[in-house]
Fold these 2 entries.
Entry 1:
Amino acid sequence: MSDVELDVVVVGAGFAGLSAARALGRGGKKTIVLEARDRVGGRVYTTKPAEVPWVDLGGQWVGPTQDKILALLREQGARTFKTWTTGQNLLLVSGKKSRYRGTIPRLPIVSLLNVGYAQFLLDRLAKTVPLDAPWKAARAKEWDARTFDDWLRVHVRTDTARHLLDAALETVFAAPAREMSLLHVLFYIHSGKNLGMLLGTDGAAQAERVQGGMQPVAEKLAEGIDVRLSSPVRRIEDEGDHCRVSFDGGELTTRHVIVAAPPKLVSEIEFSPLLPEARRRLVTKMPMGAVIKHTAIYDRPFWRDDGLSGMVVSDEGPIHVAFDNSPPNVAGGGPPCGMLMGFCESDAARAMGKLDADGRKKAALSNLARFYGPRAHDVIGYHDHVWENDPWSGGCYGAFMPPGIWTELGPSLRKPCGRVHWAGTETATVWSGYIDGALSSGERAAAEVLVGCPSIVTR
Ligand SMILES: Cc1cc2nc3c(=O)[nH]c(=O)nc-3n(C[C@H](O)[C@H](O)[C@H](O)COP(=O)(O)OP(=O)(O)OC[C@H]3O[C@@H](n4cnc5c(N)ncnc54)[C@H](O)[C@@H]3O)c2cc1C
């Protein structure tokens, strides 16, 4: 042990890895973070093109009860601003376009009641799923044997209600209902409190954004942490009393490793000895969702002149949900430019991801023109990112559990394997899949090391 260089090597400099490293540093542990990309932030990715102050191509919103990220923003003195919701929202369902204010769209009464009933039922069932052990829910086996699609088919009886729910829920899960376990959906809803919280803007998950973008928050968090960029980890050997971590460019010896990468990418790291069978299988059976976040930039937010908020829910696609994502107003006037952001998700994102950049731009702008009129073609800039094709994410927003996985393999999600510990938003209990969950997962993994590490215990 005498020539072991480090207390901890953290794999991945997303919010999970960085929060683990910060907690370890505060606990006096000598830590290095190895990051595959040439930047920190992972699924949070901010670009600064010439025509606008910033564009968030990945995670951007924060909302109430996301206590970890809200505390970090306060600590950093970051400025946040409310998501623009002033004006009428658009709804395109079953070929009809309508406008509405607030949260309740104009639908035939039967469909409206059906949507409300489905939401009520999902929230009620979700509350019974234990966040730290979904497999212990009283009806875990039954719910994990079913797909979410199967549940929707039984409980959502009108086409309009189903189309609306599919469009809205895709924004939350980025995966088709036919691929997800009902138990997973219920866990995820409970993890973010309830469906209204996951879907909403004011007072909910999409409430606020960070001025300047979210990646600078990760960059600030990384200050003072020894992060080695462009250092993908290829192999982790647990030698019993220490670990050897091999990455492009070198090798480190360390007492502990915290792996803070998405499950799919964990499956690409070679472990010696092999990880326990359940952990090994788990990471190969947690697929990622698929998302493309399209950002169209205009000289001004022209849709506001027409009384529109910019918010759209549509069952047509490829973009199913859109927002006014303009920067905040400048002193004494409106925003310096107008930005519309549309999410293309799940099957539509998988198809759109096959197009080249020009094809994606054309498809996205045509779709926005269907929402906001031909003026939507007159962009001064356009940006997107195909997360599914990004080798260091492999999809987004996060991984999900198909039927059978929570109950069979769930107990191995956070269980350390020898000296190797697990972080990442997918391992979080609260706000799993979100930046907030990433932060808490990193702190939890760091606490495991700090409490379990003999040097700390004897200190
Ligand atoms: C389009 C989009 C929109 C989103 N919107 C929101 C939102 O508005 N609000 C919100 O809260 N969340 C949002 N999310 C989700 C949020 O971004 C993620 O939950 C969160 O960033 C995950 O953090 P993480 O640290 O767990 O994982 P990651 O950010 O994925 O970090 C893992 C890191 O590990 C690195 N890595 C992987 N393999 C290796 C290896 N072998 N060696 C070294 N490094 C490796 C990766 O490069 C990456 O940097 C969004 C995500 C996307 C893609």
Entry 2:
Amino acid sequence: MAHLTLKDVTKIYDGDVLAVEQADFQIPDESFTVLVGPSGCGKSTILRMIAGLEEITEGDIYIDDERINDIPPKDRDIAMVFQNYALYPHMTVYKNMAFGLKLRKYPKAEIEQRVKAAAEILSISHLLNRKPKHLSGGERQRVAVGRAIVRHPKVFLFDEPLSNLDAKLRVQMRMEISRLHDRLNATIVYVTHDQVEAMTMGDQIVVLNEGKIQQIADPGTLYHKPANQFVGGFIGTPPMNFIKTHIVNNSGAPILEFENFKVELNAHLQSALNTLSGDAVTLGIRPEDIHIGENGKNSVGAQVELVEPLGNHALLYLRTGENNFVAQSDLVDVPQHNTPLTVNFNMDKAHLFHPETGESLTVPTRH
Ligand SMILES: Nc1ncnc2c1ncn2[C@@H]1O[C@H](COP(=O)(O)OP(=O)(O)OP(=O)(O)O)[C@@H](O)[C@H]1O
Ligand SMILES: [Mg+2]
């Protein structure tokens, strides 16, 4: 297999649409790298530049040590699976899978051997003589993946391949693609806007927003140590809560104040404030780090606006005077909506962000 390197890659469409800005990262050999971010953030553009389907405005892309900017797509040894898998409707599954190899003039016996081996891996051997319209969505998706596998490419690119499937099938295909990765020892670059898909599949996740890379990390680091407010809000459901606070000095030690509430900062969070010039700071806290019904330190009085029971836990949508936030409750007796409630912020798990740039000021202690 192979590793990929993107060096300061920028894409400007039609002279003025800046779709990707100086993407600079490595995709290690045999890694499962996921590009994730909201619609329009440049995910497909990056993938298409790697595949050679889109010109690179600035920067370089390498496979291993070879610069591929000027190599035509068909010579790049990369196979791409698209969202709308576009199978040829008049061809059988076998012919759909064999087509790319036939174009490249592979011997018939070799084609047959490769198609059969790929069909075996994907459990579609019994479907080889059917046409796409007689297949389910999941089976069609497998054929599309099969078309890529038979090529034995150095790198697989997947562009939102599961978005046409229903929820159950998505979970199943997700597992199958992960298994495929283990089995082929392939280098995979996988695009999705679904953070759950990214977290469950990727060993390296590249978070993008508005054409810019926000953070590159493994799933645990992204969740526990988000580099900025965007990542904190994008990774995790429901997202991290953000509250605008200001710093006040309480007999020498800084604490945070919002509305008429005060929360204390541990030494680690206190030291993170050193880099700030003003007294404003954004507090970030995840729903599971807000505990219900405990009086005492760092407690906040709130009103329950909405309760979402989810079986083993419930989400409470809370409101203070000016702030809304979500808490996760594992209580059996979930508070009713419209009731007043005291919650505690677990400040050992809190994050602080710069009030203007949204950059993280701290990497909180996680236990
Ligand atoms: N051919 C094009 N000409 C001009 N602008 C384009 C073109 N293709 C994409 N763009 C713009 O470039 C930006 C990035 O598009 P891209 O398709 O890479 O986003 P994406 O992250 O894949 O989004 P989605 O999740 O919706 O597929 C968007 O603002 C889009 O409108
Ligand atoms: Mg896209």
